[in-house]
Specification:
By secondary structure, this protein is of the alpha+beta class. It contains 15 helices and 16 strands.
């Protein structure tokens, strides 16, 4: 029997895995630069945590979670998103008891039992951040700016930022009265009615064309913002303008999770078709308390590595040059192989990628592989080189040869390859 990866899994292997790694590390760079600290989290949690935190009216909870019983009879769910698990860790370990805002990041696999299609997978990869304990509108803008910086660092241009505000409790309560009245007059199936009874905002997120058409006439939450919520939203917009981050206000955005309040945002790529969202997030007042913590606010985002990669490929901006091998050493003979191994050992601490051609391949075969594999420089070490004490360093892109003595080879290579040091 020939085994295969499960259907709908986004699996990466060379050479495309280098593109995946480049996406992930590029998105993480502005996160680290902003002072966020790593949370390494489990990929499964108690099912009740997600049911309470994500929201009973969401498709994520109702249709998409991978839930099972473990050997102890406990109901376990593979994480469908990152925020709830991150907050559980913050509460459990008292990470919100120090200086606030407490800032964390995480990355890894997430799981949803969805119908697989391009950009929509059952196992997918994300990076996320959470900033907990401050309701400063400037923090909202900075969180958005971190994501924006990551996408721009990838070289992406064909994307835009959509923002809205889901208001505070007073705003949502006033809006709910009129929204429920509007929905009650619609001819809806029972499951949609049941869903709306739990959270009527969910109908704005319904993907069915007929529901979208009906909801075009629905009252929108932005028109019901309390003076405090409106002032907060205007300040967020002001800070985004200060940072020169362009945005569009989308009054019907609710996103797919129930816990969002206040500032909510999404990055949309214009070349990805139906699965155009490459990342988004928002504020979540009340979520910490809902899952057993203190009543403090937070804001965060999740950025899709898979979709960011598709976007980079669509725009032709994927850059894997940082993963090229700096030097390939081709040893000819046992003594040369020992020399090559010592040379690689001495160069690698300088953040250089150094490979050795193992298996006693011919020079012709090794050089051909180096040319195809994107190697920057090659040296051949044999009895002649060991005897004369001289070796030639070949730059593969130009064919240029540079001579060096064996005794000064390490220093010569460090200087020659300095441009590749990352």
């Amino acid at each position: 029997m020939r085994y295969q990866a499960p259907k709908g899994v986004s699996e990466y292997f060379p050479p495309r895995s280098q593109s995946f790694e480049w996406i992930r590390e590029t998105l993480l760079t502005p996160i680290r630069q902003a002072g966020y600290q790593l949370l390494e989290l489990p990929i499964f949690e108690d099912t009740e945590l997600f049911a309470r935190g994500v929201g009973a009216s969401t498709d994520v909870v109702n249709k998409e979670m991978y839930t099972f019983e473990d050997r102890g009879g406990r109901s376990i769910t593979l994480r469908p998103e990152g925020t709830v698990g991150a907050l559980r860790s913050v509460i459990e370990h008292g990470l919100d008891r120090g200086s606030l805002p407490a800032k964390f990041f995480y990355s890894g696999q997430f799981f949803r039992a969805e119908r697989p299609q391009a950009g929509r997978y059952r196992q997918f990869y994300s990076v996320g951040i959470e900033a907990i304990g401050s309701d400063d509108p400037a923090l909202d803008a900075e969180v958005i700016a971190i994501a924006y910086s990551g996408f721009r660092a990838l070289g992406l241009k064909a994307f835009h930022l959509e923002i809205t505000s889901l208001g505070d409790k007073a705003s949502r309560a006033a809006h709910r009265i009129d929204l429920v009245k509007f929905i009650s007059a619609l001819d809806l199936d029972k499951s949609t009615i049941d869903r709306a009874e739990i959270n009527p905002l969910r109908l704005f997120d319904d993907k069915r064309a007929e529901i979208k058409e009906l909801m075009l006439q629905a009252p929108i939450l932005l028109d019901y913002l309390s003076p405090e919520s409106l002032a907060n939203f205007e300040q967020v917009q002001g800070f985004l303008n200060t940072l020169e981050i362009p945005f569009r206000i989308n009054p019907r955005m609710v996103r797919g999770l129930d816990y969002y309040t206040g500032t909510t945002f999404e990055f949309v790529h214009e070349m990805l078709g139906a699965q155009s969202g490459i990342g988004g997030g928002g504020r979540y007042d009340g979520l910490m308390e809902e899952i057993g913590g203190r009543d403090i606010t937070g804001i965060g985002f999740g950025l899709g590595i898979d979709r960011a990669l598709l976007a980079a490929e669509a725009e032709g901006v994927v850059d894997t040059s940082v993963f090229l091998t700096d030097l390939l050493v081709i040893p000819m003979g046992g003594d040369a192989k020992s020399f090559a191994m010592r040379l690689a050992r001495d160069l690698r601490p300088y953040n250089l990628t150094v490979e050795i051609s193992f298996g006693d391949r011919s020079v012709k075969s090794a050089m051909k592989a180096a040319d195809k594999g994107g190697v920057k420089y090659v040296i051949v070490i044999g009895d002649a080189e060991l005897s004369s004490g001289l070796v030639e360093i070949k730059q593969m892109s130009t064919g240029t040869l540079t001579s060096s003595t064996l005794t000064s080879l390490v220093e010569t290579l460090i200087e020659t390859l300095s441009a590749t040091i990352r």
